[in-house]
Amino acid sequence: MRIEINDIAKILRDNNDFYILTHKSPDGDTLGSAAALCLALQKMNKSAKILCSDEIPKKYGFLFEHVKNQNFEPGYIISVDVANTQLLGDNLCCYADRVDLCIDHHLMNQQFAKISYVESGFAATAEIIYEIINALGVNIDANIASCIYTGISTDTGCFRHSNATSHSYRVAADMIDRGANAFEINKIMFDTKSCAKLSLEKIALESLNFFCGNKGAMITLKNEEIMSSGACSSDFDGLSAIPRQIEGVLIGVFIKEEQTGIFKVSMRTDATIDASKICANFNGGGHRCAAGCTICGDLSDVKNRIISQIERYLRDVEG
Ligand code: 5GP
Ligand code: MN
């Protein structure tokens, strides 16, 4: 039986001392969702805190300005925007078997929690958090509204990706009515670049190569190149979109060497191609048009393996 939003609200009312877990390499949706939920629970006079395996990039700092720092042992553990336990990261994997409630929008969510609420029709987990906070009857003030707006705006690429639905727009509009400063948030998220980010983009563009008769394009960043750029984690935002932005390209791939010989692959595809299926060949997953996986080996081997899976997919699809 599918659990309803009102059941989630009841569970949150009936429990205390919430740990809210976000995914590693945190983005605006996992952090905005966690901050909005944490603020709402604290408004209900409950103890709540947010945990992330990785350091939180500076540009997301405003989300936490009004979150109270509280220290307590966990009574009820929630994950937001986390599709599987690997995404909890090294510092939160100790909670992998202890998650009580998973709130997520990934189609391939692995249902690792005692209770899962997964709405894959929503562009952002923040859209689910909006529904939950409304069901709780907590007033969405300007701070909560900014967090929810950030989640939706970042996961839809500022409302440009095909995942943005009328629901995304309606919730975002309501958040603006409640005081979210959309202009300022979007400026921080989409219109501001560090010098290190520009330097990463320059290096990545030099690696650009095409495959499958120019239907595919790929950029790569090696460990030593990343080190020399002085980049921090948020400087990588948007890089994975670049190859797919080239006219005529249906499949864009960004390969980033995370540690020597360990490569994080980000795939972005046209709506006609299911990136999550291609990445599933490497134990990865994600959404139809945005998916990822991790592959070990040397760079040229990793590139060849990805290209041959893409060739195979195109052969199967195009018969
Ligand atoms: P990104 O390329 O931005 O890291 O990820 C794009 C989408 O694919 C996200 O929704 C993310 O959750 C998913 N994803 C990325 N890497 C993996 C992976 O290794 N396994 C799974 N299951 N999903 C992934
Ligand atoms: Mn998300």
What report would you give on this structure?
- This protein is an alpha/beta fold and 319 residues long.
- 37% of the residues lie in helices and 18% in strands.
- It contains 10 helices and 11 strands.
- A 6-stranded mixed β-sheet has the order 6-7-8-9-11-10, with helices on both faces.
- A hairpin with a 2-residue loop joins strand 8 and strand 9.
- Helix 2 runs parallel beside helix 3 and helix 2 packs antiparallel against helix 4.
- The chain is globular.
- It starts with a helix and ends with a helix.
- The mean pLDDT is 96.
- Bound molecules: guanosine-5'-monophosphate (5GP) and manganese (II) ion (MN).
- The site of guanosine-5'-monophosphate has 15 residues, from strand 10 and strand 11.
Distance between the termini: 39 Å
What does the radius of gyration come to? 20 Å
Count of DSSP helices? Answer: 10
User: Biggest sheet, in brief?
Assistant: 6 strands, mixed
Strand order of the largest sheet: 6-7-8-9-11-10
Short account of what is shown:
The chain is an alpha/beta fold.
Keywords:
binds guanosine-5'-monophosphate; alpha/beta; 5-stranded parallel sheet; binds manganese (II) ion; 37% helix; 319 residues
Give the topology.
Elements: H1 5-14, E1 18-21, H2 28-43, E2 48-51, E3 76-80, E4 101-104, E5 115-118, H3 125-136, H4 142-155, H5 166-177, H6 182-190, H7 195-206, E6 209-211, E7 216-221, H8 223-229, E8 251-259, E9 262-269, H9 275-280, E10 285-286, E11 290-296, H10 299-318
Parallel strand pairs: 1-2, 1-3, 3-4, 4-5, 7-8
Antiparallel strand pairs: 6-7, 8-9, 9-11, 10-11
Helix pairs in contact: 1-3, 2-3, 2-4, 3-4, 4-5, 4-6
Bound molecules: guanosine-5'-monophosphate and manganese (II) ion.
Guanosine-5'-monophosphate is lined by residues 83-84, 106, 108, 240, 266, 284-287, 290-294.
